[in-house]
Amino acid sequence: TLTPEPGQYIEPQFSPDGRTVVYVKGRGGYLTSPWHGLDTGVYRVAADGKGKPERLTKEGTAPQFGATNDAVYVTRADVKKEVDWFSKLVRIDLDTRKETEVATSELVSDYAVSPDGHWLAYATRNNAEPSLMLRDLTSGDDRLLLPKIQRDDQE
Known about the structure:
The protein is mainly β. It contains one helix and twelve strands, in the order ββββββββββββα. The chain has one helix at 151-154, and strands spanning 8-14, 20-26, 41-46, 54-57, 61-65, 71-80, 84-93, 99-105, 110-113, 119-126, 129-136, 142-146. The chain is globular, with a radius of gyration of 17 Å. The protein starts with 7 loop residues before the first strand and ends with a helix.
């Protein structure tokens, strides 16, 4: 058990060294008490269950590490002009809590940072077709990996 506190815990991911787990604490309700859904957000905790979970941010989903243990990436959704939804990938430095926006798009559905931390794969729409893209995180260059992917290919 990573935390003795009841709640809804989803999207767990191990750090590269296997010593830390990051996860999302969601809202309570349905089968769990709403009281167990207080203090939602993205947390980290020691993988051995020792120590208290620490909230990294109040907002974010799909937490993931890159090549090192010093930063966590989270996906956030937001709205421009009341109807224009977009998602962004944010890097959170675990020592300073400094947040850096890595990618933003109105058409991205998923982000995945490579294990070496050099690449970012993401599903998007390219010429109105679902596609898979790859970004070099050093140069910022994007390239099309798979054009016209099918829904089954995305899952």
